[in-house]
Amino acid sequence: MFRRSRRNAEDKKEKVHRPSRATRLFVVLRKLKKSEMAIAGLGIVSFMSMVALLAPIIAPYAPEWKGIARQAPSMEHFFGTDNLGRDMLTLIMHGARISIYVGVASVLIEVVIGLSVGMAAGYFGGIIDEILMRIADVIFTLPTLMMLLLAVSMFQVRGIHIIILVIGGLGWPFLARVVRSEYLSFREETYVEAAKSMGATSWRIMVRHILPNILSVVIVIATMDIPWAILYEATLTFLGFGDPASSSWGVLLQRGEEHLRTSWWIMTFPGVALLITSLGFNLLGDGLRDALDIKLRE
Amino acid sequence: MKPPTNGAVLRINDLKTYYYIAEGVVKAIDRVSMKINEEEALGIVGESGCGKSTLAHSILRLIRKPGKIVGGEIWFEGENLLRKSEGEMRKIRGSKIAMVFQNPTSSLNPVFTIGSQIAEAIKLHQNVQKHEMKEKVIDILGKVGIASPSQRMKDYPHEYSGGMCQRAMMAMALSCNPKLLIADEPTTNLDVTIQAQILDLVRILRKEFNASILLIGHDFGVMSELCDRIVVMYSGKVVESADLKTIFEGAKHPYTNALLESIPRINVEKDRLHVIPGDVPELIKPPPGCRFHPRCEQATEACGKEEPAIIEIEKGHEVACLLYN
Amino acid sequence: MSEAILEVEDLKKHFPVYGGVLRRQVAAVHAVDGVSFDIKKGETTGLVGESGCGKTTLGRTALHLIKPTSGTVRYMGRDISKLSAKKMRRLRLEMAMVFQDPYASLNPRMTIADIIGEPIDIHHLAKGAEKEKRIMELLERVGLVPYHLYRYPHEFSGGQKQRIGIARALVGNPKLLVADEPVSSLDVSVRAQILNLLKDLQKDYGFSCLYISHDLSTVKHMSNRVAVMYVGKLVELAPVKDIFDAPRHPYTRALMSAIPVPGQRRENRIILKGNVPTPINPPTGCRFHPRCYECQPECAKDEPELIEVEKEHFVACHSKKST
Questions:
Q1: Strand, coil or helix: what is A216?
Q2: Looking at chain A from residue 1 to 20, which residues have their Cβ under 8 Å from any Cβ of chain B?
Q3: How much is the ipTM here?
Q4: How many structural domains comprise chain A?
Q5: What mean pLDDT comes out for the span A56-68?
């Protein structure tokens, strides 16, 4: 229990426990280390990322290599071959490169836009809130696919980066709404009023006071959106807006759907890969969320 | 065997109510004894964590998990309430022992009219015909000082002010003529002038209904208005109990005295208030020996080892302090 | 005659109430409805009243945390509504506030060092080791041991948290401290610590204080002068001794007689009828007239002005008995 100040030699001698900025980061990392969830999540995500990174080197075959079509999983082809004879394992490994990149990048864009819009709308309210939320509503209520198609068709360039920009640029309204409602409630907190009373600028309050409190919500939504982004990319590629030769997981899934009854492995293994990766991101997100909570002592 | 109440309406012997939480056991009430006589008003004074609210809930057996009454006896009308079944307790609550809570507006159901809520309280315990019920409700609302009761009984709680809600709660509590009325911080959230109205009302009602009152609070002034005797609690234990005059003029326990010295009073001029150092202890890990000893100016070494027992130093005046052993 | 640190002139704050399909303004909450008073250098003015009287709104409007609907607030002679945003921000070092709820007024995710260091950062007062030194000095000043600098608020008790809030308010050597119910949320045995601390700090720093509270006993202990508010208006303003020993306004008298005194049972209490009116639709004329036991015919029509009936003693009442 905390003692009141008494002019005591003992008190004076004790040193101030002075953690630097870096130490506080280490505290978060230490907590992450202790959480089994976070370790599992981190493990999965790292593993998948490694696979994606090293795909060209460690894949058993070249992605264009074609052998006997529709071979069931065997010793030579762990995950079988697809309808054109390409090795599934290779395709999945190369697919990871695209899918994980797309997933993370589009969600990053989504978070940046969603946070900024939500912050401004929730904190300032008034006309800013009205305008921003009307825009968000329009984007949110129109069918996603239609919006994606419209947006992509507006750009002449094809390719993965357009897809990423479009997915992130149209996927932010939900996050913005959630962030906005959090800011609406947090701006009424007494410690926000206290900050105002000492002359804090709006920016300072939004970023230093309120943002740390809502990070956990943002993390949860972001990790849930990664698999969605991966699937949207598949649709867009399939409809001709991406690289037609791409073998992202989404594309593999779509291709595999046709052959589900005859060659189940064409769809199943990419599906499992996507599932595990999503799980990994979710676990990591949960672990991060708990690690950021200062009230949970180690 | 003679019922061990001896003219007292309620007698609590060695009551123990503990809360079992993840961090450990919280001994909210740790061997507390007291009695309330017929038509007497007893006040329990204490700060947060002293156990006074838990005590009220224990009497009515309203303690839920993770709390549990683990020991002691509560004698009411010749029977031990702790041995009664839930069904029997339900017959007692609201009719023989009634309770009024701290936050009147949130204690009332917002979707039912005041009149219907009072009627419900009456219906639960008395056999009243429909045509008589309306009269009864109007009558009791009038008794608690609600103007135009026949109209106001059709209002909803949000249409009543804080003071009026508290009156309505009292109407519900008194509708079945209880022997004991427990009031848990009834005026804490009310404005000063409204508080005066309610205290005045309680005085009048006391005469009319002949009930004993157990008043729980932390304001000595409010206690002085209504109570005949006062029990001072600290950290789950009773430290002193005496009649009103004795507490204010001849209190013996260091906590009681320190507390009285530290509150700013209208009628006393002081430049600096007497300070009780430290903070109210956490019940999860109370100090060993006497729970007040870390903050007590007269503490000795023994105080940290031995828990003082309650001793009657003069008639009607009990103290739990090693100074008087 | 000491100069005034804060002068409030005919201050009004109305909050709009929206209703109807088109969400037009249908009514207004007259939280503060024409209040004038001033706080002199080194003095503590207590502001009392019951719920809905507007004292909390008045405290915040005086500090310009809420923009007034009309009226002027002058700090050291300057009209603060005319100041640029930058100058106003700088001024906040000199006008600090201590809040009621110590649990809510400290950001739970910030360390004590961050919390007290915030005004230092905002106004670039110090950096690094110098900043840390200042924070530790402030902690000692408010009676805390400085080496728990990097702990979080939830590790401290209510009384300690309030000390931290006070330390934060003292960073800029304020000339005016607004204390909004600073001890209402604290345990009774801890209140004396904080009240003594505030008094000591006032002696050391020499700041003026606006002490807002509904607890009349603490107001009496802390204030030199007391202002009594009722439904948005000042009904009486006088030195503390006069307010408590010889109140003049019928409401003040009722208020004083309503206070329960430990150890005494008051006879001849003035028990007011009815409830405190809502500030949305205040009574016409004198706001207190429906409950007043000395009501005259003109009280329902004309609002009484605040006039000086004795030296430094102001009352707003039509009744001959109070003036």
A1: helix
A2: 1-2, 4
A3: 0.87
A4: 1
A5: 83
